[in-house]
Amino acid sequence: MAPSFDNGSSLFNFVVRDGNGVKGMVDSGISKVPEAYIQPPVEQIDKKNASKCEMPPIDLSRLVGPDHDKVAKEIVRAAETLGFFQVVNHGVPVDLLESLKDTAHNFFGLPAERKAVYRTESSPTPLVKYGTSFVPAKEKALEWKDYISMVYTNDAEVLQHWPIECREVALEYLKTSLDMVKKLLEVLMENLGVKLDDSKIDSLIGNKTVNMNYYPTCPNPELTVGVGRHSDMGTLTVLLQDGIGGLYVKVPDDADIDKKGEWVEIPPVPGALVINVGDMLQILSNGKYKSAEHRVRTTSTKSRVSIPIFTIPKPTEKIAPLPQLVEKDGIARYKEFVLADYMNNFFGNPHDGKKSLDFARI
């Protein structure tokens, strides 16, 4: 029997500690959002008054051939302004993307005890973590999201440790996306006048994680968020969103585009992948590329899934603005640090916009 969700500690125990997640709470038949999930008015997402991002998807097949420079400029412009863009003809089979969405829905449809095996406290492997919200023990209001997070080491370990229900399709998604990620990084670095060899590019994306996020239907979506305001901490993120929508990006106040300071929705485009700049790329570029502040709304009509790949340097990597850029700019805007220290700060605090970058600012 489900507990009273009006009681904060019994809700926390049921959703977080026992691994039932938001889905378990929704499946119990709630008719209103529990207090623990109601966001302060300033964090609530006004769907009616939000506009859509008008930037058309970038066709990556045109990077080969006479249009290379034009397409490279589109990628650079997006990274310098919004920090978000969509790509098509990216090399990841569209039928694989459809299969991924089905796999995510099927995984979260499993009995709670099967998913709860992978809770942080009890997971049989450090490569897989099942959880809910972001840092639930520290959040003033919880996020309306369950997730499974799968860290890549090598194929053999993945096939041994990732959940059998999703390991093959998630691994194929990761492997078919990496060429695209490397191409995008090469374009972005060349624009900065920096030529990185393969080993340096590999070091910037040395740590790779596939997440499957699940946003159950919500009785009062206007009161909640699926994910709160944040930027991703890594280098580049690849995201598959489903057809429901709900991803919002904040246009930076200093961006050379319209709608400064506004939240715009990234509308789903069939067959497209969303790319966003992470904090590490903002730091490496000495602030030229912008990590994107974004958030996710919930919906009352249908459960939603999204599947990101986070590419991050290895935790032991030293990160600082590239020396060529510091010389050109005459100033380093960020200090040098070891990535593990940044990660501890990032994952130890609730989402709060781009505040995570303060760790590295000079």
TrEMBL record:
Cross-referenced Pfam families, in alphabetical order?
A: 2OG-FeII_Oxy, DIOX_N
Key words, A-Z: Dioxygenase, Iron, Metal-binding, Oxidoreductase
Record flagged with keyword NAD: no
What does the record give as cofactor? L-ascorbate
For the biological process aspect of GO, one term held by this record is: coumarin biosynthetic process
GO molecular function (one): metal ion binding
Q: What InterPro entries would the database entry show? A: DIOX_N, IPNS-like_FE2OG_OXY, IPNS-like_sf, Oxoglu/Fe-dep_dioxygenase_dom
- What positions does the domain Fe2OG dioxygenase occupy? 200-313
Q: Which family does it belong to?
A: Belongs to the iron/ascorbate-dependent oxidoreductase family.
Question: What's this protein's name?
Answer: Feruloyl CoA ortho-hydroxylase 2-like
The species is Durio zibethinus (Durian)
